[in-house]
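User: Sequence recovery, please. Input:
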């Protein structure tokens, strides 16, 4: 004697299953739809906030450009201080590219004022904020320059090395700076390693390769 399940085909059994469980199935479907709507809404809100943040940075950048050639002028000191306060407030509230650019603008102001300690600190914060964006290696390069201006060669080498570890237009230049500063410290072997890394890692950077090869020859002759 056939059982109840055997009396029905697959489609009939599915229909019976859905009929018997329609309320929980409808509830689950509703939850899934609601979750999808929330995700789409969240992505939309995030996109709007990011767009607004970048627009705000552009406004701050415009204020910097209007002041940059007179930053050392005592008559502009109040405006510069207000700009730094606004940049700091914005940078602390925003991460990602917008926050990184705000810290970079802060660093640029300090660099224009030749206040290299503050500039280096701001460049580092820019790198932290803009981590995993195209902006990260750029600001590490500038942090290297700020450290070098202070005579802090070890820190400069660290920043340049981090910059050179990325793929971006000035990576070879950053790598050459590592070698140049190792030479300055009389670390011949470290300098040679830095230059050889440049030659092997950046095969299409003809200018920097030629400069590195020249330094390799000079260092080897002087050993």
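Assistant: Recovered sequence (223 residues):
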């Amino acid at each position: 004697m056939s059982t109840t399940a055997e009396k029905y085909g697959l489609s009939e059994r599915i229909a019976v299953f859905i009929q018997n469980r329609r309320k929980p199935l409808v509830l689950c479907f509703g939850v899934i739809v609601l979750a999808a709507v929330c995700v789409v809404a969240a992505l939309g809100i995030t996109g709007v906030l990011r767009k607004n943040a970048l627009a705000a940075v552009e406004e701050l950048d415009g204020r910097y450009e209007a002041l940059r050639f007179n930053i050392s002028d005592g008559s502009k000191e109040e405006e510069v201080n207000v700009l730094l306060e606004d940049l700091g407030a914005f940078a602390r509230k925003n991460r990602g590219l917008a926050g990184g650019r705000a810290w970079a603008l802060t660093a640029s102001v300090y660099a224009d004022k030749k206040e290299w300690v503050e500039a280096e600190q701001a460049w580092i914060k820019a790198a932290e904020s803009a981590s995993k964006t195209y902006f990260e290696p750029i600001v590490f390069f500038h942090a290297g320059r700020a450290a070098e201006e202070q005579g802090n060669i070890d820190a400069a080498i660290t920043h340049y090395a981090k910059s050179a570890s990325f793929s971006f237009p000035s990576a070879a230049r950053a790598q050459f700076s590592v070698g140049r500063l190792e030479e300055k410290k009389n670390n011949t072997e470290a300098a040679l390693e830095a230059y050889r890394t440049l030659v092997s890692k950046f095969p299409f950077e003809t200018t920097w390769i030629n400069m590195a090869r020249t330094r390799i020859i000079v260092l080897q002759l002087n050993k």
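The first helix runs from residue 10 to 20.
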